[in-house]
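call fold(seq) -> tokens
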Amino acid sequence: MSDLEQMYQQVILDHAKQRHGHGLAVLDGPAVGESHQINTTCGDEITLRVGLDGDTLASVTWEGQGCSISQASASVLAELLDGASLRTADETMEAFKALMHNRGVPLDDEREDLLDDATAFVGVGKYPARIKCALLGWVALRDAIARATVGTEGSDHE
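ret:
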């Protein structure tokens, strides 16, 4: 195993043990969304809650159980996107999805910079059965944001 692969493995293990954003925050207001996702292939579960402040992810918290890949991925997601703009969150989600479907080949420098620690999951793309594990929290995030924005879309028009 190369030094880079060992470093990436260590980042995943560290995030699986020291989970950023773990523990669902109690949020109130119209711009709160929550999503519960299950990977039916392996049984991993994630419940992710977001609170929006305008076009900013003011809070990203989660709880879950499953393999170290799913748990570490949710941790990295929370660390990267808590406080980020919705635009940055969308760009980051798309970059992570591209990383997962790139079959272990790194992305361009710009998207790798955007992903920061999430680049550690590059090797997961070599294992199709594990891609769902890594994407579980990201799918929950997209759904939670959609649910949060449903409560705020009509408020300016009334």
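Residues 154-158 have pLDDT under 50 and may be disordered.
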